């Protein structure tokens, strides 16, 4: 039996990734034979790996502000979707949802399946869905790699995982986006602040 991916957040330090079957930084395959130590402060000279710089810059892993915006729910004929804005990292993969929800309410039978596909593409797990009649969701499919470190961006977790941090409300258990620029107001989760950092790799 394969072991579940383990993510351990070190206090004011890096992420330790254990049991990854595959990991990638941009186009570079990362060695998964040993634990992977990924920078969380955003100041490493060896991205994406931790080089101890967090100690020199006085990085704090504490959240800078609380996020308590309400969950939004959309009721369709076949599918119910929910959005947790506190978990969103703003990659806007959800843009097709507005039109698809309208089509689904108007009776387009294929629109519900398309909605589910868009929700599954949400990297942060901020979007979730369930089928109205069955009150169930399909099992989360693993991504192409377990851990995808976006160059100039977030860490995307794309498989079942354990983490020493409570998941956010309604967050899908097989999806997460972790901050590695050090500036998220929702640490350890990414909120898109890396987009404001010039030259961040």
Number of helices: 3
Note the overall shape: elongated
Average pLDDT value?
Answer: 92
**Structural class assignment:** alpha+beta
Strand order across the biggest sheet?
4-3-9-10-12
Q: Helicity, in percent?
A: 10-25%
Give the topology string: H per helix, E per strand: EEEEEHEEHHEEEEE
Strand content range: 15-25%
CATH-defined architecture of the domain at 72-131: 2-Layer Sandwich
Q: CA-to-CA gap between the ends? A: 36 Å
Q: In terms of per-residue confidence, which ranges show pLDDT below 50 for 5 or more consecutive residues?
A: none
Radius of gyration: 18 Å
CATH topology group of the domain at 72-131: Alpha-Beta Plaits
CATH C-level class of the domain at 72-131 is Alpha Beta
Can you describe this structure?
The chain has 3 helices and 12 strands. It is α+β, with helices and mostly antiparallel strands and 201 residues long. It has a domain at 72-131: Alpha-Beta Plaits (2-Layer Sandwich), CATH 3.30.70.20. The strands form 3 sheets. It has a 5-stranded mixed β-sheet, with no helix packed on it. The chain has a 4-stranded mixed β-sheet with strand order 5-2-1-11, with no helix packed on it. A hairpin with a 5-residue loop joins strand 9 (147-149) and strand 10 (155-157). Helix 2 packs antiparallel against helix 3 (111-120). The longest helix has 10 residues, at 111-120. The radius of gyration is 18 Å and the shape is elongated.
């Amino acid at each position: 039996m394969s072991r579940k991916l383990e993510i351990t957040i070190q206090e004011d330090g890096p992420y330790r990734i254990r049991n990854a079957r595959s990991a990638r930084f941009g186009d570079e395959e990362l060695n998964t034979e040993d634990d992977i130590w990924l920078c969380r402060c955003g100041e490493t000279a060896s991205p994406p790996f931790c080089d101890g710089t967090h100690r020199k810059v006085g990085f704090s892993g504490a959240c800078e502000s609380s996020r308590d915006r309400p969950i939004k729910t959309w009721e369709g004929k076949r599918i119910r979707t929910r959005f947790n804005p506190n978990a969103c990292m703003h990659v806007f993969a959800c843009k097709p949802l507005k039109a698809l929800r309208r089509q689904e309410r108007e009776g387009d039978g294929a629109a519900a399946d398309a909605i589910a596909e868009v929700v599954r593409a949400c990297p942060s797990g901020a979007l979730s869905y369930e089928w109205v009649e069955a009150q169930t969701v399909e099992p989360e499919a693993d991504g192409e790699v377990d851990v995808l470190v976006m160059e100039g961006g977030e860490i995307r977790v794309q498989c079942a995982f354990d983490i020493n941090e409570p998941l956010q409300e309604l967050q899908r258990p097989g999806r997460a986006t972790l901050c590695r620029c050090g500036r998220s107001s929702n640490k350890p989760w990414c909120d898109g602040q890396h987009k404001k950092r010039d030259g961040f790799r």
